[in-house]
Amino acid sequence: MSDGGTSAKRLDYLLLTGIAWTAVLRWPAHAISWIATGVAARILAPADYGVVSMAMIVIGLVRMVEDFGLDAVLVQDRTIVGEPQARLAGLVMCIGAFLCLLFVALAYPVAAFFGEPLVAPALMCLSLLCIADALQVVPRAGLQRAMKFARLAWLQFLQVTVTQGVLVAGALLGWGIWALVVGALCGALAATLLLFAWHPYAVAWPREIARLSAPLLQGWRVLASRIAYYAYSSADQLVVGKLLGKDALGAYSFATALSTTVSGEISATVTRVVPGIFSEVQKDPDALKRYFLVLTELLAYLSLPVSVGVALTADYLVRIVLGPQWDAVVAPLRILCVYSAYYTTQILFGPILTWTGRFRANMWCSIVAGVTLPAAFLAGARFGLEGVAWAWAIGLVVTVLLLGWALHGVDAELASRIMGPQQVSDAILLDLAIRNDGVLATFDKRIEHLLTPGSPHRDRLEVIPIAPPL
């Protein structure tokens, strides 16, 4: 039985059906999106897409952090119910409303920055997405908690279908940029209304914020993790564009897309059901280990052949799909396939930290990657696109190995838990004592948790009791 009382067979069923529903509806949604985009692109002008893209640059950056990480906290911490949940819902809505008003106030300055007047009204309208996102936080978390994966899959399908349907209709009616804007708003509205129907919830004014300090602190850590992820995941293109030029960036962008499109879709299909499953079994180590290994093995079986196949046929693939003028894509594509193969096999480490409540650990892992990977890109750029691609392949491995080295030699239990800087420093000191046949004496009782019961290294640790003050 899991923490929430769900049997193992029931969890297995929910996991398999969740992956199935996500896969069955995800690919048709993509097909609808591609077809609708193709139809609209033949009618709308490139300038229409350009104006909306200018507005979405600003909106997109804020949408990544607008919920303050509370979407993840609500899924992980199943004790947040009733009044605390209602106050958090109210807080998220206040943040969404504030951001909406902020974008309205900044619309004309942003339009002036781009030198395009139409950006202002487009940004004002698209700012309503902040409110829609805020309204969706609690019900989406509730569906994940309840492991209603089929409903989440249908929700995504509905939003894509409505968005693309309105886009095509608006394009045919001659709406111009408003076909894109109204399509996005209608899709968000449809999803919000369906979420309210499936998972109604209470909202309260966010008073007594101090009593919400625990989830807000965890939300801040989620937020820091996302910012660090955004920094290192976009740093490679920034470095290529700045140091190697626009032609190199164009080739590198295609190499990135071809190396990750299929494996990324496979990973996304699996990781959409992970939050609910990992959160449900977070206090059951055996079940958690089982699902982690099963899903990692599944990802490896599905993704590794794709990465190897693309790497081996890169020269033919590029010439068939893109044409011979894109031969510069081949070399970085092969290297990025190596990165993609490795990344897929460790993609669940972040989720298992997040959905078991180790938000601080995940934050520090992201920060380490956020520092080391951009530095690796800068160094790799000296050797061209291949150097930047190898920076991904080697930099990510080195980052993981550095953390693993800090935890090496203590116990297998510890190797499965990447913790904060204090625990990592304790682990390093204990590791040095073990390696040098010495004893570590410490006042910190928490270091005992670095060793499992019955560990052969217990004699290498001496915790000195601190006498209470007189």
Briefly say what this structure is:
The chain has helices spanning 8-43, 46-63, 70-76, 82-114, 119-126, 128-145, 149-172, 177-198, 213-244, 246-271, 274-280, 285-312, 314-321, 330-345, 349-354, 359-380, 385-407, 412-415, 421-435; strands at 440-442, 461-463.
Please tell me about this protein's structure.
With 470 residues, the protein is an all-alpha fold. 75% of the residues lie in helices and 1% in strands. The protein has a two-stranded parallel ribbon with strand order 1-2. The two termini are 48 Å apart.
* Spatial extent as radius of gyration: 24 Å
Helix count equals 19
Average pLDDT number: 79
- Morphology: globular
Structural class assignment: mainly alpha
Cα end-to-end separation: 48 Å
Order of H and E elements: HHHHHHHHHHHHHHHHHHHEE
Q: Could you give the count of β-strands?
A: 2
Low-confidence stretches: 404-425, 466-470
Strand arrangement within the widest β-sheet reads 1-2
Largest sheet: 2 strands, parallel
- Structural domains: how many: 3
Helical fraction equals: over 70%
State which percent range the strand residues make up. under 5%
Sequence-ordered SSE layout with sheet pairings:
Blueprint: H1 8-43, H2 46-63, H3 70-76, H4 82-114, H5 119-126, H6 128-145, H7 149-172, H8 177-198, H9 213-244, H10 246-271, H11 274-280, H12 285-312, H13 314-321, H14 330-345, H15 349-354, H16 359-380, H17 385-407, H18 412-415, H19 421-435, E1 440-442, E2 461-463
Parallel strand pairs: 1-2
Helix pairs in contact: 1-7, 2-4, 2-5, 3-6, 3-9, 4-5, 4-6, 6-8, 7-8, 9-10, 9-16, 10-12, 10-14, 12-14, 14-17, 16-17, 17-19
